[in-house]
Specification:
- This protein is α/β, with parallel strands linked by helices.
- The chain folds into 2 domains: about 5-240, Rossmann fold, CATH 3.40.50.1360; about 245-275.
- About 40% of the residues lie in helices and about 15% in strands.
- It is built from 8 helices and 10 strands.
- It has helices at about 10-30, 45-55, 80-90, 110-125, 160-165, 185-190, 205-210, 245-275, and strands at about 5-10, 35, 65, 70, 100, 130, 155, 180, 195-200, 230-235.
- The strands form 2 sheets. A 7-stranded parallel sheet has the order 1-10-9-6-2-3-5, covered by helices on one side. Strands 4-8-7 form a 3-stranded antiparallel sheet, covered by helices on one side.
- α1 packs across α2 (about 45-55).
- The structure holds fructose -6-phosphate.
- Fructose -6-phosphate binds near residues 38, 69, 82 and 139.
- Fructose -6-phosphate binds near residues 37, 135, 139, 140 and 142.
Length: about 280
């Protein structure tokens, strides 16, 4: 597992810290593929990107954008849609070519065919960096607990907690769709780098589970432990349950176990050598 964790003081710092990761990618590759997430958490990053574009002219002309997910049955012009969210919060404020932006089409007549189209597009253009948020229940994209990691882009049934958390964008909580199209977990892991952002005390348990909890599909975000390059940016509230002492003790315990195994293997080798003599 290679997870770097940065703890910041506020949204502004989160935006700036996260932007450093995006800038690194763009500096190395002007035609980078960037995987975007919607939701409240990445807004300070998108504000920073828009601001930097205006002030410094950082260009996204050759960038290709993919989004993680979209509601089923919500028109892309509807304010509640993720397509509209991306246009309003970022794409209209930078020089990205709309033709280079892709998001699952939740209005497609044939949703399965749309999932297949999207899975193929993501496979063809693996992300150089994937921005992620985390759900209160540990979901990444709309991969809710117990989703099979190998499921490619699929139709997901949203949990009640996810629908409640996302109700703000709808006139009435009952209008939050039951279904969404979402990129799958292993598809997300094909990104070269992952940038996971989480803020607020409501995310503290999910963040703890992602980093220190049992490694199973009850918390989909634990899948990130299998990725070689993950940067996690948290505010203090989201990091509140991380007990670094416990973490260090666990690392020491593992190191002691490895040393004991190595010593045992050495003794066995010596015994084998003695037996040969
Ligand atoms: C959004 C997405 C979701 C959100 C998560 C956190 O595209 O895939 O997984 O990242 O629900 O949402 P916020 O940031 O609103 O707390």
């Amino acid at each position: 597992m290679s997870m770097r964790i940065a703890i910041v003081r506020n949204g502004k710092e989160l935006g700036e810290r996260a932007f450093l990761e995006i800038k690194k990618v763009l500096a190395a590759k002007r035609d980078a593929v960037i995987g975007f997430a919607t939701g409240n958490t990445p807004i300070p990053l998108y504000e920073k990107m828009a601001d930097d574009h205006k002030k410094n002219g950082t260009s996204y002309k050759r960038v290709r954008a993919f989004n993680l997910d979209e509601y089923v049955g919500v028109d892309p012009n509807d304010k509640a849609s993720f397509a509209r969210f991306m246009r309003d919060n970022l794409f209209s404020k930078i020089d990205i070519d709309p033709a280079n932006t892709d998001i699952p089409n939740g209005m497609a007549d044939d949703l399965s065919a749309e999932c297949e189209r999207y899975a193929a597009a993501v496979k063809k253009h693996p992300a150089d960096i994937q921005i992620l948020g985390i759900g209160e229940n540990g979901h990444i994209a709309f991969n809710e607990p117990y989703t099979k990691p190998e499921e490619p882009t699929h139709i997901a049934l949203l949990t009640e907690s996810t629908r409640a958390a996302n109700a703000g964008a709808f006139k009435d909580p009952s209008l939050v769709p039951q279904y969404a199209l979402t990129m799958g977990i292993n598809e997300i892991l094909t990104a070269k780098r992952i940038l996971m952002l989480a803020t607020g005390e409501k995310k503290a348990q999910a963040v703890y589970d992602m980093i220190m909890g049992r490694d199973d599909t009850s918390c989909p975000a634990t899948a990130l432990r299998r990725h070689p390059d993950v940067t996690v940016i948290l505010d203090k509230e989201a990091a509140a349950l991380l007990t670094f002492g416990e973490w260090e003790r666990e690392a020491e315990r593992r190191a002691a176990e490895e040393a004991a195994d190595a010593a045992e293997a050495e003794i066995k080798d010596e015994e084998a050598e003695d037996a040969e003599k």
